[in-house]
Amino acid sequence: MRPASIHRRFVPALAIWLVAASCTGLEPSALPDGAVPMAAPAEYSEWYARTEACAELRGALEGIEWYVVPDVATFETDIGEKVGLWERVGNVSRITIAGYYVENEMVVRHEMLHDLLERTGHPTEYFVNRCHLTWESWDAAES
Ligand SMILES: [Zn+2]
C-alpha cells in the first residue's frame, strides 16, 4: 500500500471531526459546577444604575440571567478560579457569582460593567478610571 492512499483515507475522517468540534462551540457553554439560578437581589437595580452612570452607558438589567454558586469563595472556570463570571450566551448576558460575594458591590458591579461593555477584558478607562471596579481601584476610592 502506498502512503498516498493512506492519507486519502484519513483526511475525510479528520474533516468530519473538525466540523463536529466546531459545532459544539455554538452551544451554550456549561455553567460553572454547582451554579443555580438566582433572582437578582433588590440592591442590584441601584448598583446597575450606578454602573451605567459611571460608564455613561445604557444597558438592560432584565437582560441578565443571574446564577450563584452557593457557599463558596471562588469557583472553577475555563479561565481559572473566579469570584464572578460574565458570559454572552446568544443575546443573553449570563453572570455567575460565588456565594460569598453575592452582596459584594464591587464584585457584582464589575460583572455588570462587562455586561454594559459587552466584552471580556478590562479596559482601564472603564474598570479603573471611571468606575473603580477592580480590587485595587475600589479600595483606593473607598479610603
Ligand atoms: Zn472581569
| Chain-averaged pLDDT | 86
- As for the number of domains, it is 1
Spatial strand sequence of the major β-sheet: 1-2-6-5
Overall geometric form: globular
Count all strands and give the number: 6
Radius of gyration: 20 Å
The portion of residues forming beta strands comes to: 15-25%
Which hetero ligands occur in this complex?
zinc ion
H-E order = HEHEEEEEHHH
Largest sheet: 4 strands, mixed
Helix content: 40-55%
Quaternary structure type? single chain
Spans of 5+ residues with little confidence (pLDDT < 50)? 18-27
Q: Alpha-carbon distance between the termini?
A: 76 Å
Counted by DSSP, the helix tally is 5
Structural class: alpha+beta
Structure in a nutshell:
This protein is an alpha+beta fold and 143 residues long.
How does the SSE layout of this entry go?
Elements: H1 3-24, E1 36-37, H2 43-55, E2 64-69, E3 75-77, E4 80-82, E5 84-89, E6 92-98, H3 105-117, H4 124-130, H5 135-142
Parallel strand pairs: 2-6
Antiparallel strand pairs: 1-2, 3-4, 5-6
The structure holds zinc ion.
